[in-house]
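Troubleshooting log. The previous run stalled partway through. Resubmitting the same two chains, unchanged.
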Amino acid sequence: MTNSPPLQDHPILETARRQVLEQGIGLAREQLLDVLRLPDEALPALLELAHQVRLRHCGEEVEVEGIISIKTGGCPEDCHFCSQSGLFDSPVRGVWLDIAELVKAAKETAATGATEFCIVAAVRGPDIKLMNQVKFAIDRIKQEVDINIACSLGMLTRRQVDQLAGWGVHRYNHNLETARSFFPQVVTTHTYEERLETCAMVKDAGMELCCGALIGMGETLEQRAELAAQLAALEPHEVPLNFLNPRPGTPLQEQPVMDGKDALRAIAAFRLAMPGTVLRYAGGRELTLGDLGTRDGLLGGINAVIVGNYLTTLGRPATADLNLLVDLNMPIKELQKTL
Amino acid sequence: MNTQDLLTPPETAYCELCGLPLQPLSLPVDGPKAEKDDGGDAPPSYHHARCADLLQLEPPRFCASCGRRLRVQVSPLGWWANCSRHGLHAS
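Second attempt completed without errors. Output:
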C-alpha cells in the first residue's frame, strides 16, 4: 500500500480523515457513495485510511468466530441468494444436527482461538422444537466449552428474544442483507420492517446485535451506500460482510461474482460508515477476493473473521487465516475481552 | 460420527458436485456431428473440470457411486455427507 495518491487528490478521503478518523463520526449516505465511486488508483489510500480508522476506533485485535447450522435446508422463505430455501431447486437437503456433534464443533472452534460460536438455523423463525434444541445445545456447550454463544434463528417474537437472552446468548445475528430499496427484489416472503423489528427487540433485550450485509446481488452503488448507512443507523455491535457466492438452483445462480476491487471499496466504505463496529469477513470472500484480497481487506477495515467453513460451503482452511493474522501481527481477541 | 460407520468409498461414477455421470451414458457413433468430423464433443472430464475446481470450496452434493443427492452437514473444521444407499463420507 505504498505510492498512494495523497488524500487531498480525492476530497472525500480528506473529509473522511477529519470526520471519521479524528472525530469518530461515520460517513453519511452521500459521502459513502463518493467512497464507492473512487477510482482504482485511490484504492490503496482508501484502504490505508480505513485501516487507520479501524486501529484507532477498534484496536489491533481481530475477533475470530465459528458458525454452524443446527438445522439445514427446507426454509420456507425465498431469499433469492440462499441455497437453503425449500422453494428453489437447490442440491442442499434438509439436515438436523445432533447436540453431540454441535458440542464437538464448538470444542474444535474454541481450539482455534475463536471466542464466538454461532448456532444458525434455516427457518423463518424458531418453533418450540427448535427453541428446545437450541436451549439443550446452549446448556451443553456452556458446560463443556469456554466460548461465547451467538444465535441466528430468523425472526423472533418478544418472548423468544427474552428466552435467548435469559439462556446466556450474548449476541444475535439477523442480517438486513441489502438496502431497503433493493430488498423486495431479493426477498418476497417477509419485509424489511420485519427484519428491523427483530433487530430492535434484540437490542432492547440487552443482547449484542450482529446485523450483516450481502453485497454483489445486483444492487447499485447507490443502494450499497444506502445499505451501509441503514446498518450504521441500527448501531449494531457487529456487521458480517458477505459477498454473493452464486448458488446453483437459486434465482441468483447466474449473477457474476463481484469484482475484487469493488469488494475492497465496499469493505472500506462500511468501515468509514461504522468506525467502531466489529466488521467481520463472512461468506464469499474466497471467491471474490482470494488470498491476496483477503489480506488487503484485513488491512482495509476488517477486524473479525469467520474461521473455517460456512453453513453449507467450505471456507479457507482455518490455519490459513490464523497464520495470516500472525503474519500481519494482528492478535486474536481473547475471551475475557469480549465479555 | 463413529469412523466405523464410514463405508469404503464406492467406485466413482457420478460427479459429486453436479450429480451428472462422469462418463456419457451413450456415446454418439454416427449422425450429423460425426459426419462433420468436428472433433466430437468435449470429453466428459472437460465438463466436470469446473466442478472439480468448485469442489475446493464445496462439500460433495451427490453420491459418487449412484448420483443420489446427499444429506450434508458442514462444521467449521469439516463436513460429512450421507447417501441413503451408500452411507457416510466425511472430510
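Takeaways: Chain B touches chain A at residues 1, 18-19, 56-59, 61-62, 69-79 (CB under 8 Å). The mean pLDDT of chain B is 77.
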